[in-house]
Automatic annotation (TrEMBL):
NAD(P)-binding domain boundaries: 12-154
Top-level taxon of the source organism: Bacteria
GO cellular component, one term: cytoplasm
Originating species: Syntrophobacter fumaroxidans (strain DSM 10017 / MPOB)
Name assigned to this protein: NAD-dependent epimerase/dehydratase
MF terms in GO: aldehyde dehydrogenase (NAD+) activity
Gene3D superfamilies cross-referenced by the UniProt entry: NAD(P)-binding Rossmann-like Domain
SUPFAM superfamilies cross-referenced by the UniProt entry: NAD(P)-binding Rossmann-fold domains
UniProt cross-references to PANTHER family, sorted A to Z: NAD(P)-BINDING DOMAIN-CONTAINING PROTEIN-RELATED, PROTEIN YEEZ
Annotated InterPro entries: NAD(P)-bd_dom, NAD(P)-bd_dom_sf, NAD(P)-dependent_oxidoreduct
Amino acid sequence: MDEHKPRVLLTGATGFVGGRLLPNLVSNGFQVRCLVRSASGFAGSLPPEIKAEPVEGDLLKPGTWEASLDGMDVAFYLVHSMGGRNFSEIKSFAERDQKAATHFLKAAEAAGLSRIIYLGGLGELGDSLSEHLASRQEVGRILQSGKVRTTILRAANIIGAGGAPFEMLRYMVERVPVMICPRWVDTPCQPIAISNVVDYLAGCLQQEDTAGLSFDIGGPDIISYRELMLIYARVRGLRRLVVTVPVLTPRLSAYWINLMTPVPAGVIMPLVEGLRNTVVCRENRIRDLVPARLVSMEEAVCTALAETEKGPGRLPSTQSCFRRL
């Protein structure tokens, strides 16, 4: 641990992105404090080599977590409520996200935090954004509206084992030989491997020139969701057919995906509604400030499969996966 480096508060440390960012920060010598719901449970889940200080609290409950900012220099804001466990909880997620962000900014200013780094979503507000993507944009606006210099990274679908976009993709392609999809299956997108997201998050922490700015982040491939599904099928050596129909609405699609996958229903709906929006990087300035080897979607899918421990698509190694290409 390097005492000369900024001290970091990591929110969302138990999540898909935060759980992967934590080992990166620790291995690079950062002193990390993690804001979690259960400090004892979190501490018990950490491998011995990951040294981090757990602090218990809930951003939606003022008075339970503000002390976690004491002595910290930089915070990663990676909390995101999505839509809950079922369809009935969907409508309240945007309100929860904005309330949590407002609480956090106020406390960060009071604590004298120097920087916030936030991971949001791609998409333009003028493009009839889904509620999910519009909420991500609004959270970013809230965090950048105060005195703390906030860096915003905006990503499309993040592909990695355990992430909702990948798990939806995995179960659908594995289980359905002929996939009936709405027209949005041909919407352009620029997905990004989880390893590249971690590269950029950690890189922004170490690159002071990123403070207070917003960046689009994406992988090297601009493809459609149809192409992404066929990439998965090709990596797995599966023959799959994707058929589009004009009458399948996002809500009907979400109900169907809910039947076919273990992804929580309340998470599926916001993701599916967002698929109708084009999510492609408008600029690539981040590549100059934080150089990283961009991972192709074939490699991202293969790596995610190699990391998967249970369920369809299990593979013993990345190397065995690439033999199928």
